[in-house]
Amino acid sequence: MIALIALALVVAGTVYFNLRPEGEIMMEKGSEMIEEGDAMMKEGESMIEEGDAMIKEGESMMEDGGDSSAMSSSGVSYHGDVLAEGQNGTFLLDFNSQDYENAIANEKLVVLYFYANWCPVCKAEFPKMQDAFKELNEEGVVGFRVNYNDNQTDDYERGLAKQFGVAYQHTKVFLKNGGERILKAPDSWDKDRYITEITNAL
Prior knowledge:
Blueprint lengths: L1 H62 L6 E2 L5 E2 L3 E4 L5 E4 L2 H9 L3 E7 L4 H16 L5 E7 L7 H9 L8 E5 L3 E6 L5 H11 L1
Parallel strand pairs: 4-6, 5-6
Antiparallel strand pairs: 1-2, 3-4, 5-7, 7-8
Helix pairs in contact: 3-5
């Protein structure tokens, strides 16, 4: 009986010592996997931080107007889409109230073109206005394409049309000295007429 117990202990010890190295190997592998997992977690956290930084940078660019912003030679910054740019900091912009009020406050010569996207006259004339602005070499001029009675017209633009008595699309309105109306013309102009009228108004 004692011999059987002794034999059983020997067998059990042999099994234990044979299994122990395998268990230790598995423990080591488990530790390595945990370390790899920790490294991947840290890498993931770093990527999340980089992503957050990119989002904040994008939001900052949106607030500043992004790449579409433009600055005149006098340091006045505009944020709307630039539709044409002259040689001396002269801009023709898609209308937005912030840029319009900025131009008025800085006493620019403001040229408003009341544009309807359904109007064939507007579609034919507006590129001539763009060509004129590209050739202008005068400081202190800002033009705006203002939506008029189309599906893009907002309340501010409707208010402008009412303020200046605009009854037809393709009407031009010139403002000077902080918003004083000096010209209103509903007739169609070519490029040279734009250049002449703008130059004379300065």
